[in-house]
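Hey L., structure's done. Input below.
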Amino acid sequence: MKKIAISINTSWNIYNFRLGLIKALQKEGFEVYAIAPKDDYSEKLEKLGVKHIDIFMNNKGTNPIEDIKTIWEYYKIYKQIKPDVALHYTIKPNIYGTIGAKLAGVKVINNIAGLGTLFINEKFATKIAKYLYKYSQKKADKIFFQNRDDFELFVKEKLIEKNKCDILPGSGVDIEKFKPIKVNKQDNVFRFLLIARMLWDKGVGEYVEAAKVIKQKCKNVEFLLLGAAGVDNPTAIPKETIEKWEKEGIVKYLGTSDDVKSEIAKADCIVLPSYYREGVPRTLLEAAAMEKPIITTNNIGCKEVVDDGINGYLCNVKDSKDLANKMEKMLNLIEEERIKMGKAGREKIIKEFDEKIVIEKYLKAIKEVMSS
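Output:
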């Protein structure tokens, strides 16, 4: 039986973002292995017929001894299961998974989905990361990028071989799962919603500052936050800060949810003022697919989802004043205009970001790599 391995930094990520691909691979006759640290979603993957393999991976750590251990674990796993192809996502699988796979004689397809905080400023850690990318990606058989900016940066820095790369429309979105849901509003409150891990780099601070401005001018407006707080990240926002904002009546924090779709449905506009180096934010794709107008930054990854003035607005990076202006602009639209924006957003997603486009590219790449 043909075997394929999918490795990401969390089982949660595999379950929430790669189910469509997993089902397509199973339909093609592949036995699918999920290689990721064990969490609550590992069992859910097993129930889908996926064989989960736990691996040691310190996602935020920079200890070289730990990273060598991760490479060794990848090598042992790939030697044991002998997959026809290994699919890697996120930094450590892309780098250390590739090295381990090639030592074991396994073919590799990588997905470089945004560069996060690491490439915002040129630090010593960035130089190390670039060296590791350059060393490891030479060994990959195929590399996918989620936006052209990241691809061009890697080409400019000579971190990759251009001829084995391709660009995907983000990670795609399941347009049947994420479609418009009619919600009967019990009030006339307009709700802005930001969905992200609570990081300063996601523009949460700018969102809060803009909310303060809007609240002085407009009544019946709510500013919601959805996503994990106090995460292990250098730019994480302390839970105490979010609690302070709540007490001041600026925002309402919703915590985390396994049913993001319902939270999107209840919102009137989705906002992501990120200056993080995104791939293409999945939440924006899902929101647009559900016919929600969007406000996001004119930033790498984010700008791909919004045609300014058509399905939402683009604001300047790290500019709470401009963000507040775009929010006010959204509030001042009549309902029919916002509905029109939402419909234009879904049309864009169907045309450019349907998950089927991504899956088709993967199936073609797997076939090519296996036959090379």
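The chain has a mean pLDDT of 92. Residues 271 and 295 are 5 Å apart (CA to CA).

-- N.
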